[in-house]
Amino acid sequence: MLRFCTAGESHGEALIAVISGIPAGIEIDPEFVDRELWRRQQGYGRGGRMRIERDSAHFISGVRHGKTIGSPISIRIENRDWKNWEEALPVAAGDPAKHKRLASPRPGHADLAGAIKYNLPEARYVLERASARESTARVAAGAVAKLLLKTIQIEVLSHVIAVGKAAYVGSPKWEEVELMAQKQEVLLGCIDSQAEQRMKEEVDQALRTGDSVGGVFEVIAHHVPPGLGTYANWDERLDAQLAAAVMSLQAVKAVEIGRGVTAAVSFGSEVHDAIGYMRGRKNQNGGESFTDFTRAHNNAGGIEGGISNGEDVVVRGYLKPISTLRRPLESVDFATREPVKAAYERSDVCVVPAAGVAGEAMVALTLAKVALEKFGGDSAGELERNYRNYRKQIAEY
Ligand code: EPS
Questions:
Q1: Residues of the chain scoring pLDDT < 50
Q2: How high is the pLDDT of residue 125?
Q3: CA-130 nearest atom, ligand 1
Q4: 271 alpha carbon to ligand 1 midpoint, in Å?
Q5: Residue 396 burial (CB count, 10 A)
Q6: Strand 14-20 to strand 330-332: parallel, antiparallel, or no bridges (unpaired)?
Q7: CB of 133 closer than 6 A to ligand 1?
Q8: By the 8 A CB rule, do 10 and 133 touch?
Q9: What is the pLDDT of residue 231?
């Protein structure tokens, strides 16, 4: 069973990811993992922290001679900023005079609810763990999941479809999303440069006014075979698992599968993906198609009845604007209970492309889990063999 967890705080010594249940023999390319971490650091509107960090994955266990060995994989990512916080946030008791309080909670952040819940006098420890810095560890774990999925030909990428009110309308080709992921310079991660410029203007406005801006990313999982997940039990539905995984990301407030939102306000005839049959299709395009069944479009986002249907799986994450504002909202001082402005140290203004990369990680980890449940295998060879046999079975259907 694939499981993973993360540990670490935003300004602590390091972030940690532990992943277990990955079969032996999966090739681990550290450059690929670091490239994923780099992608998460990009985007127009990031704050000062991204100029400090050079996120890089240090594998501690579970990988030997470049391949997984079946035991739990642990990864450490250094926080370079730790050296600036060591005295303010020591593991030992330290000097209380050096403690940096977060004196007034930020509306929208975990600060107030977390401080009440953990019975803390202020919110420093809350923000340390609630911060989206934690998504770094998820991206490292997700990179391992992506390398596993590669053995069964599944790829996972994202692109940005909205920043504030600026939106991209359309359905990109997989190749366009692939090209986007290869770029060495990331603006806002939109495949349409005109829409991207409008997105940049939204960020510029937030920068000018001391505000922040949210948006929507779309994760696409390409070449997912039909049959992952099941309607048999509520918690085994693929859409439910993906929704929970993406919703768990910091600042995500809504998740959509395919065209779920517009489907709710459309007639059935406008929504459902009509089924066709094209004899020989699966043999004509180099093994890209799983069966000879065809679909008019993919409004279902590759999932029907909680099961993947062989079309690309499409999951959208809707991000609220970052809750740290340079021109802060009203709040209350933790100590005096007097009205004050919410705390501000430094912050990102827009994180939509970075959140998309974290979304890819969560989708990849979820697909890796359900793929291992479906195909099983303690080694890469066994997994591939089981996958090939299944492909043969569904091709003959
Ligand atoms: C983040 C690092 C953090 C935050 C951000 C995500 O760095 P710092 O707090 O040192 O500036 O900028 O977290 C938030 C947006 C948040 O609200 O907590 C990162 O590595 O992505």
A1: none
A2: 98
A3: 18
A4: 39
A5: 8
A6: unpaired
A7: yes
A8: yes
A9: 98
Q: Letter for the amino acid at 300? A: A
Q: Whose CA is nearest to atom 1 of ligand 1?
A: 133
**Ligand 1: which residue has its CA nearest to atom 19?**
133
Q: Identify the CA nearest to 240 among candidates 366, 121, 141, 130.
A: 366
Q: What is the pLDDT of residue 341?
A: 97
Q: Which CATH superfamily is domain 3-395 in?
A: Chorismate synthase AroC (3.60.150.10)
Q: Which residue has the tokens 């070449």?
A: 223
Residue 235, CA distances (Å) to 64, 232, 300, 386 in order = 35, 9, 19, 24
- Domain-by-domain residue ranges, the chain? 3-395
pLDDT of 286 reads: 73
Atom of ligand 1 nearest to the CA of 136: 20
Instruction: Give the pLDDT of residue 287.
Output: 75
Question: Does residue 47's CB lie within 6 angstroms of at least one atom of ligand 1?
Answer: yes
pLDDT for the residue numbered 284: 81
* pLDDT tens track for 172-225: 999 999 999 999 999 999 999 999 999 999 999 999 999 999 999 999 999 999
Other beta carbons within 10 Å of 219 = 26
State both tokens at 341.
């402005």
What SS3 string covers the chain? CCEEEEECCCCCCEEEEEEECCCECCECCHHHHHHHHHHHHCCCCCCCHHHHCCCCEEEEECEECCEECCCCEEEEEECCCHHHHCCCCCCCCCCHHHCCCCCCCCCCCCHHHHHHHCCCCCCHHHHHHHCHHHHHHHHHHHHHHHHHHHCCCCEEEEEEEEECCEECCCCCCHHHHHHHHHCCCCCCCCCCHHHHHHHHHHHHHHHHHCCCCCEEEEEEEECCCCCCCCCCCHHHCHHHHHHHHHHCCCCEEEEEECCHHHHCCCCHHHHCCCEEECCCHHHHCCCCCCCCEEECCCCCCCEECCEECCCCEEEEEEECCCCCCCCCCEEECCCCCCEEECCCCCCCCCCHHHHHHHHHHHHHHHHHHHHHHHHCCCEHHHHHHHHHHHHHHHHCC
- Please report the pLDDT score of residue 93 as a whole number: 96
Contact 263, 341 (CB under 8 A): no
Residue corresponding to tokens 């998309």? 356
CA of 133 to the centre of ligand 1 (A): 5
